[in-house]
Design a protein that fits this description.
This protein is an alpha/beta fold and 277 residues long. The chain folds into two domains: 6-94 and 210-276, Rossmann fold; 96-207, Rossmann fold, CATH 3.40.50.1860. The chain is 47% helix and 16% strand. The protein has twelve helices and ten strands. The chain has helices at 16-25, 47-62, 74-87, 96-106, 118-123, 125-133, 147-152, 159-174, 191-198, 207-221, 242-253, 270-276, and strands at residues 6-10, 31-35, 68-71, 92-93, 111-116, 138-143, 179-183, 203-206, 235-238, 261-262. The strands form two sheets. It has a six-stranded parallel sheet with strand order 4-3-1-2-9-10, sandwiched between helices. A four-stranded parallel sheet has the order 6-5-7-8, with helices on both faces. Helix 3 links the parallel strand 3 (68-71) and strand 4 (92-93). The longest helix is centred in the first third of the chain and has 16 residues, at 47-62. The chain is globular and about 50 Å long.
């Protein structure tokens, strides 16, 4: 039994799709979510810069004595997961490996597609994670930098969105994929249009849902589920505008967000020394 909260963070608000899935599967758990909206998006940034942000955020979450940390950001998972898992004692998972395992289980043709930010796709993390499970799977990955912007503008359906998705997915569909990893936490909000364009023969893999499932399995195995009788209270923290967080975050979370705390911090210089050591 462990009544401490779970810490979750993302470069912005897309990670709230992960929070939503975790709350659905683990309704008794208390959650602290940090959205780094002041520095969103991470996708175009360098791996070194992203790692600096990740160390800052994890240090902040540890001040609140979290029992587990979820990096609910594909770009941050790709850039920093392995480094921070080695550096911190708290268990940390990202969203890449759960999605990769689910895609390998789902594919029949052994042709898997991955769409995500430039940072996520350039890292090759999904390819590596999929190959660990099944080295024979063909992975067709593509950066889709415009799609997260559509979600940020709350433009999740309509001709413009459909044309953009069609343009991005066309080479993947021609390659014969039958499962598609939504490698950005914004993309589940576009799943209806993505599914329409991809067709019935392509199964969409939500990293958010798979990450929540793996977190649940871990807490059960370690006997770390929250047992408090008092209903959990989720806390939301942002590095940017609180009102924007509440308004846009409600779309990702699927419910109203009553309050948001705001914090800011400078980029830590120690990350370079940590990586050299």
């Amino acid at each position: 039994m462990d009544n401490r909260p779970i810490g979750i963070f993302d470069s912005g608000l897309g990670g709230l799709t992960v929070v939503k899935e975790i709350a659905n599967q683990l309704p008794n758990e208390e959650i602290i979510y940090f959205g780094d909206t002041a520095r969103f998006p991470y996708g175009p940034r360098s791996s070194v810069e992203i790692r600096g942000f990740v160390f800052e955020i994890i240090d902040f979450l540890l001040l609140h004595d979290v029992k587990f940390i979820v990096i609910a950001c594909n770009s941050a998972s790709a850039a920093a997961l392995e480094v921070v898992q080695q550096y911190y004692n708290v268990p940390i998972i990202g969203v890449i490996e759960p999605g990769a395992r689910a895609a390998v289980q789902a594919t029949r043709s052994r042709r898997v597609g991955v769409i995500g930010t430039q940072a996520t796709i350039s890292s090759g993390s999904y390819i590596g994670a999929i190959k660990v499970v099944d080295a024979g799977v063909q992975v067709h990955s593509l950066a889709c930098p415009d799609l997260a912007d559509f979600v940020e503008r709350n433009e999740i359906t309509g001709p413009r969105v459909e044309r953009a998705i069609q343009w991005y997915l066309d080479p993947l569909i021609r390659a014969g994929i039958d499962s598609l990893i939504l490698g950005c936490t914004h993309y589940p909000l576009l799943s209806e249009t993505i599914s329409k364009v991809a067709g019935d023969g392509v199964k969409l893999i939500s990293s958010a849902k798979e990450t929540a499932r793996e977190l649940k399995e871990f807490l059960i195995r370690k006997d770390n589920l929250r047992q408090e009788k008092v209903p959990p209270i989720s806390r939301f923290v942002s590095s940017g505008d609180e009102d924007v967080f509440r308004e846009l975050g409600a779309r990702f979370l699927g419910r109203e967000i009553e309050s948001v705390d705001r914090i800011s911090f400078p980029l830590q210089e120690r990350v370079a020394g940590i990586e050299k050591g």
